[in-house]
Each structure stands twice: as structure tokens, then as C-alpha cells.
Amino acid sequence: MMSGSNAKLLAAGKRLLTIFAVLWGAATLTFVAVKLIPGDPVAILIGSANSVVDDSFRETLTRQFGLDKPLWWQYLRYCGEALTGNLGVSYQYRQPVVQVISAALKETVPLAVSALALALVLAVFNALLTAGRHPRLRSLLAGLELMLLSTPVYWIGIVLLSIFS
User: What residue ranges are annotated as transmembrane (predicted)?
Assistant: First the structure.
């Protein structure tokens, strides 16, 4: 029989192992999905498949992004770079991905925090309304909640844009 602290340590270890497995799986699926995209990655980097580009420039880009290496090497490099926080360069913006993400976070974080605060206020209000002896109100709000949870997020977004714009 295990002591309480050993059981907690084992549970924490299992949880960390699960987190690692999920992150590794997501990274692997992302790598595979990017490799399965049809087309030439160098042509995407250049910007147009129809543009005339010197072969030496194409070879330079191929070497720079490691596309001339075997797939297993590209995967190991991808995992190693991701573990060190180097997410590479965005093909679209031609900037480090970390900079692109941090620029987007300036708008995303305030929106997420305000949405979380609104959800908390609505949840407390809902709990206070349904905690009493009002079975019809409780059923109505539970049905409304189920309907909203079942509705696709993009559709709710379109409706809210129509209402508030």
C-alpha cells in the first residue's frame, strides 16, 4: 500500500506524462499535416508559383529551411526547435512566428479576459436564479444553456455581429 504523498506523486507523474504525450501527438500531427499540404513549399515561400526565380535562389531557400534533408531529420529538427521555443519563420509574414503570436496576443488577451469575466458573472447570476424553488425557471435556463452550448460558435458570432453592429 502506498502512502498518501507517494500516491499524489505518482498521480502527478501520470498527469505530466499524459500532458507530454498530448503535446507530442499534437506536434506530430501538425508536422504531418503541413507535409501533406499539396504544392511546393519553396514556391509558397517565393510567393507565386508562376514567378520566374533563379535556381540558385530556390536551392538557397531549400537549404535554409532544411527541405533538402530527409523527412525524419526534418521531424527531429522540428521537435528540437519547438522544445527550445524557436517556432521558425512565418511563410506568410516573413517574421519569426513568436513575434507574430505575441503581436496577436495584444488583442487576444483582453478579449479572452473580458469574455471570462462576463461568463463568470452570467454563471453566478444563473446559479442564483436557479438555486431557489423555481423549477420552471431552472428548466428554461437549463434548456437555453443546452441550446447555446449546442450552437456552433461561428453562428453565434455572426448573430452577435448582426445585433451589435
Answer: 16-37, 109-129, 141-164
